[in-house]
Amino acid sequence: MGQFDRFAFSASPSFDEAKTRAAFSHAVPLKTVVIYCYDPRAAEIPTAVAARLGGEVFPGEVVRDAEGKRVASTTTIFPVIVAGGRAVDALRSITIAQHLFGIQNIVVVHHSYCGGTTFTAEGIIDAWRREQGADISRVYERDCICIEDFAASLKRAAALVRAHPGTPKHVNIYGYFYDIDSGELTEVVRDGARHAVKLSDVSCAC
């Protein structure tokens, strides 16, 4: 057994995946995943989303058992923090959140004065080649690298999330723009559709 295996549920001799999954689903009443930027000025975005949709912002109140171990949380809103709040970086987290806890809403938020608007795709590719000696021109699709149009980016993001096979069909998908000066949250996209969409039907969204 490895040094840390005792902390891994799946490493236990008595591991039962179905029971473990059921236990996790009751440990956290997750409802909403919020994807937003790691800019510190945008840190209040989950609170703004909670005011709009309701819910308790991460980490909520941590629940302890009789032995004092941390076993659960009251949070209903989970953050997924990535550069520019690009949805493409959050797809795996969405799939796992649904599998372990079940979710009702996926929210993508872009914010004013974002660093993702301060460069172009070609600019970062050229800089990376000069400064790092590496070619990233084929690593990321151009539309996924920077933000040139907030509304267009949010619409592409909603389409990508909806079409992805790792997204549950029953969720509501929202796209918001957040003004970091006023704290105002503006709805740009609302997709409550339940029908399946093929990935080939949408372009890359981030």
Describe it.
With 206 residues, the chain is α/β, with parallel strands linked by helices. Helix content is 27%, strand content 18%. The protein is built from five helices and seven strands. The protein has helices at residues 17-27, 45-53, 91-100, 121-132, 150-163; strands spanning 32-36, 62-64, 70-73, 77-81, 105-111, 172-178, 185-191. The strands form two sheets. The protein has a five-stranded mixed beta sheet with strand order 4-1-5-6-7. The termini are far apart. The model is unreliable at 196-202 (pLDDT under 50).
User: How many strand units?
Assistant: 7
Largest sheet: 5 strands, mixed
Cα shape: globular
Relative strand content: 15-25%
Our Rg estimate from Cα atoms comes to: 19 Å
How is the secondary structure organized here?
Layout: H1 17-27, E1 32-36, H2 45-53, E2 62-64, E3 70-73, E4 77-81, H3 91-100, E5 105-111, H4 121-132, H5 150-163, E6 172-178, E7 185-191
Parallel strand pairs: 1-4, 1-5, 5-6
Antiparallel strand pairs: 2-3, 6-7
Question: What does this entry show, briefly?
Answer:
With 206 residues, the protein is an alpha/beta fold. Helices cover 27% and strands 18% of the residues.
